[in-house]
Amino acid sequence: MTRKAKLYTAALSDVTRSDPGTAAGRLRRMRRPLTIAEQIADAIGAMIVDGRLAPHERIGEEKLADLYRVSRGPVREAFRILEKRRLVQIIPRRGAFVRPVTRESIADLFNVRNALAGMAAATVARRAMADPDRNLTLKIERRLDQLRGLAEQKHCEPLDYSFQMTRIVYTIISSSGNQLLLDIWSELNEHTFWTAIWKKPQDAFTRDERLKRLAQIETCADAIRNGDPDTAEKATRVWLDEIRDRVLANLDVIPGEGSEYE
């Protein structure tokens, strides 16, 4: 078995055996069970973002089917999922090829998501001004309390903390009442390489870092609670843009040279 074949197998086993006590495991419980095709797509997607599969490299359909002991059907479906996530290009009669994932494309994804989150925070702040009982912000406060509990832990898994921060962003967006914004956010999650980036920790590695993120999010929550849309938007962008920069510094993704698919 080749070295790449071993990497394929290891990556898929990591996906199928997600510990229910981890952030990844909790995410699994929130969603329907993954199909075999989705498991394969997640595993290969993580390898592409990590740079373990080279830009323009052909991914063998038959080899994957043999390695995972499945028919070619789930592998073809995995390729279609990866194509939607802009991680592979399917060329008729030639197969699936790895699309280059550059720091620029990752930055673009973060920038769009961060702008949407900032917009949502401003909208929630405006809505909070007309909600004297603060019912609108109760769920955000609960999520923030959960984050405080994690921040105080001496040993906290970075992915758990990042997962909780993502839940806060999602809660802010859903609280905005803007269904189109929520739909676009969900589309970005499902049809981009976003989840592949977070297959391993990218932020909140130390307790000091977690406390810093907590303080930043509390500033955002205070602005929402006080009905200050400008501060809410700016404060949201501050911590999300810092996470963007941290991820870009962590990832060792080099743009592929040339444009030919061999």
Descriptive account of the structure:
There is one protein chain. The protein has helices at 3-16, 23-30, 36-50, 61-68, 72-84, 103-129, 138-152, 158-175, 179-190, 194-197, 207-225, 229-250; strands at 58-59, 88-91, 95-98. The chain folds into 2 domains: 3-98, Winged helix-like DNA-binding domain superfamily/Winged helix DNA-binding domain (Arc Repressor Mutant, subunit A), CATH 1.10.10.10; 103-250, Four Helix Bundle (Hemerythrin (Met), subunit A), CATH 1.20.120.530. Strands 1-3-2 form a 3-stranded antiparallel beta sheet. The chain is mainly α and 262 residues long.
Short description:
With 262 residues, the protein is mainly α.
